[in-house]
Amino acid sequence: MKKFLSVMAFLLFATSANAELYVGAGGGLSLDANSTYDNYRCPPFALLGCDEIPSFNGSDLDLDSGAVYGGKVGFFMPFLPWIGFEFNYLQRGIEAEQQPFSANGPYDTTLVPSLPFDGQMAVRFSDLRTLGFMVMLRPPETITRTLLFGLEPYVGAGINGSWVTVESIRTFDSGGNPVASYTGGAPDWGLGPMVSVGANVSILPTLKLYTEYKYSKATFRFDEVDDYTTEMDISDHTLMFGLSFNFGL
Predict the structure, then answer these.
(1) Total-model pTM
(2) Most exposed residue of 83, 112, 193, 220, measured as fewest CB within 10 angstroms of its CB?
(3) Where does the pLDDT of residue 19 fall: very low under 50, low under 70, confident under 90, or very high at 90 and above?
């Protein structure tokens, strides 16, 4: 038992003399995406500032799956080779096709002229662009080489900043008849979490094939969409495949 523990400790804490810089690019699919829709307003006579109150709270919107492409740049340290840092860029198309939408609250708006509302909504967005920063963890090379037959799993967690424009919103009654619409293009950026789980397989000493799952979420606040402040939480799950080039430093 002591011998086994000694071997495991060696495999876990053995270090490499070189740092590792890598650059990767790939593509994939957005497997599932959704958005929550809420509207806020300032109370009348808010002379000393705006304590926002809900105008209405809307149901979630399912976003169509679409193609995703992006890249990443990462760095693993020489003295702790299982800990690294990674910058990510993702771009994908999202759209909420006409679907059931309900809302409740004290104040109606141009797009939701009567409450409670039980109808339909369609939203067209620009491409959703995301820049993320994550702390990465992976097993030391001694473990991947001796126990995992060269497979290099990794996980990461961090924060993302995302950009998107709401190009149009249309609401309909329960029978699908048009009620109101917004067109104009309201851009905004939001912050939120990002996580990643994946694995590398070496093809050449400096070239790896990777596949990974990513989840990201960001909160956006649009001031020009629907009379007051419209808040959207947009989240999606993506599956990516690509190649990374590795450089020893």
Answers:
(1) 0.83
(2) 83
(3) confident
